[in-house]
Amino acid sequence: MRARFDAPEWHRAIAELVRSGDAKSTCDALISAIDLAVVHEGTCLLAFYRDAPPEVLHHTLEPAGAAHYLDRYLAGPYLLDPLYQLALRDNKPSVCRFRDETPDRFRSSQYYREYCEQTHLRDEMDFLLDVSHGCTLVLVVGRREKMFTKAELDRIRLIEPIVRATMQNVWERWKTESGTTERDGALHRRLTRCFENFGASLLTDREREITQLLLRGHSAKSVARELGIAPGTVMVHKRNLFAKLGITSQNELFSLFIDELSQY
User: Fold this and answer.
1) 207 and 235: one domain?
2) Domain count of the fold of the chain
3) Rounded (10°) CA dihedral 244, 249, 252, 257
4) What is the pLDDT of residues 9-40, one digit of tens each?
5) In whole angstroms, how far apart are CA 140 and each of 23, 31, 56, 97, 121?
């Protein structure tokens, strides 16, 4: 495994990383180094904020993929993203495999089909770095053709110190280059209120709690674990909330939420 890190190409990549100047050239150099450690088909560096929508600092997605995934994602559906929820947690890993941090029904959720499946990623490793009290940087390293092997996962974890140090450098340079641009906290608050109050005129507080977990890809059993209630109780609430909203599936629930979100 370590042989490739003894190769001249690796040392040249690290030298380029040290020489890099602005945020973009630093990101480009980092991705080139990661290319030598493990084969992947796309990266994205995001800043997740507690009080504003995420920002994309760098990505290697093709224009069509960026328009579909990033632009639509940033318009509000990021609130349902397990990665967004993970980034905001106090107790989070510094590097993880995305599939290990998602709710049990996430890959069959409508959110996954609408916003994740379209990127054609089969596997994903994420580096997470708190850069301030209210902001976490996340570097996504994606794989489309096949899953990461154990050896590849080991190599990704081996370069974690280099990746995280570079992410910190990118953040410092990004802040300097972008100045004091004010983030749209008002939009984030409106979107958050939409999520938290979705169905408020029809549903009980407990039904809204369950609705939020269902939207994020939890099964009835997972909802029960999260809320500390019996799965049968969850199913009763689920039938009731579906009836009140005039729907018959979680796909329709997702569509209702996205329709409401678009009004914000």
Assistant:
1) yes
2) 2
3) 60
4) 999 999 999 999 899 999 999 999 999 999 99
5) 17, 11, 11, 10, 11
Q: Which two tokens stand for residue 105?
A: 């029904």
CA distance readout (Å), 187 to 182, 194, 209, 264: 12, 11, 22, 8
Yes or no: say if 81 and 195 are a contact pair by the CB < 8 Å rule: no
pTM equals 0.87
68 or 42, which is more confident: 42
The boundaries of the domain holding residue 251 are 198-261
Residues 6+ apart with CB under 8 A from 99: 107, 123, 124
C-alpha 100 chain-centroid distance: 13
Distance CA 140, CA 41 (A): 11
Q: How many CA atoms lie within 13 A of 132 on its CB side?
A: 10
221-262 pLDDT, tens per residue? 999 999 999 999 999 999 999 999 999 988 899 989 988 887
**What's 34's domain CATH number?**
3.30.450.80
* Same domain, residue pair 68 and 142: yes
The pair of three-digit structure tokens given for residue 76, joined into one six-digit string? 């509000």
